[in-house]
Amino acid sequence: MGVRPRMTVLAAVVTALGLGVAGCGQQSRVSPGSQPAPPGPGLTAEEVRHEDATTAWAGGYCGAVSELVRSFSEMPSIDPSTPQEASRTSSELLGSMIGGLDRTLDGLDRLARAPVADGDRIKEQAVTAYTNIRDRAVGAKQQLDAATTEEASRAAIGSVRAPLDEIGRISLLDGFDAVPELKEASLKAPQCTELTDSGAAPRFDPGTP
């Protein structure tokens, strides 16, 4: 089963959007840890270096996707008091989401070649998925920003749901479980454990009631 941090903000956002319709951070450089682990039983020095490189790569991947998590933690609230306010604040929300996607895509783009088989394929699949969601979010934001009437605002608000629903279905480490080396590395890299620890931030929850 893929690793998926809690995303309660998405339910809150969709609820707020429903009310509106009815009522109207650069990726840090990755450190693989303090010192390389000493060779374990049966491991050569080269194998240990490979493990360290894999952990560093997984940490870089997790550091990149954590930017998307951070954008949700900073996401503004939607004001459903009027269609115009719902439209304006929905645009701000999408702007925060687009910024997080941009930082995530930049971080993934700057990852070195994966030291394990399938690593680059997993990364490219993630890039494609995030790019498609970003494109739809940009289109929805443009529609919101262009709305000048109450009717147009109501129609534009409906377009916000699709990219939010899509991001809600994303498993941040999709594919890692199918590659034993990456699965193991994700349990060691601090950037990954921050994403997967059920009691730790960051998570998809900006504190929305």
UniProtKB/TrEMBL annotation:
Q: Where is this region: Disordered?
A: 25-45, 186-209
Q: What highest taxon heads this organism's lineage?
A: Bacteria
- Can you name this protein? Lipoprotein
| UniProt source species | Prauserella cavernicola
